[in-house]
Amino acid sequence: MSYVVGLTGGIGSGKSTVASLFAELGVEVVDADIIAREVVAPGEPALAAIATHFGQEVLDSQGRLDRRVLRERVFSHPGQKDWLNALLHPLIRERMIAACAAARPPYCLLVVPLLVENGLTTLCQRVLVVDVSPEQQLARTVKRDHSSEQQIRAIMAAQASREQRLAAADDVIDNNGPDPARLKAAVAALHQKYLALAESG
Predict the structure, then answer these.
(1) 41 neighbors 47 (Cβ within 8 angstroms)
(2) Is 161 annotated as a binding residue?
(3) 190: phi then psi, degrees, rounded to nearest 5
(4) pTM score
(5) Class of 3-200 per CATH?
(6) Mean pLDDT by 10 residues, the chain (201 residues)
(7) Is there a binding annotation on residue 15?
(8) Which of 28, 52, 77, 91 has its CA 20 to 30 A from that of 22?
(9) Is 201 labeled as ligand-binding?
């Protein structure tokens, strides 16, 4: 069983960039977003349950989940989000645990955007938060996703606050500045720290 470091951060914080830097150092990365897509792939029981519940219109012509249609259904009926979460969250959690258990030692990185919100910090020996100011989050995400400021603010409001995330953190990477070399150095230092912790733990 690998030592598990949970990586999280708000939208636009740079989680993916940080995860890639750890991966370059040979660290195995377990990504909740990838697992979330896998559990609703064609042929998966969860996809059949979603189509039965919401109607065949949530599937595209290839029989894959049409996320945009599903999102519209869920947003127009708030109670449906609870139904969807009750179906998917246990499946995603189960696969994350299995992937971490199968990961090569000494440690693996579990990347979960909603690690704090969904009470998943218990799956990790250590929590690493990528921290940026709300202003940075907004500017980066609007630029990256070409979404409206209003949409991004709504997503940020639904996530844990910066204070809540920092309260759950064992380690913090400050990603406010556009300095790739500094970010790389911070990841390299933490990598050494995690190797030592995994060795001793």
Answers:
(1) yes
(2) no
(3) -65, -35
(4) 0.91
(5) alpha beta
(6) 93 95 97 96 97 96 94 84 94 96 96 94 97 92 87 89 96 91 97 96 72
(7) yes
(8) 91
(9) no
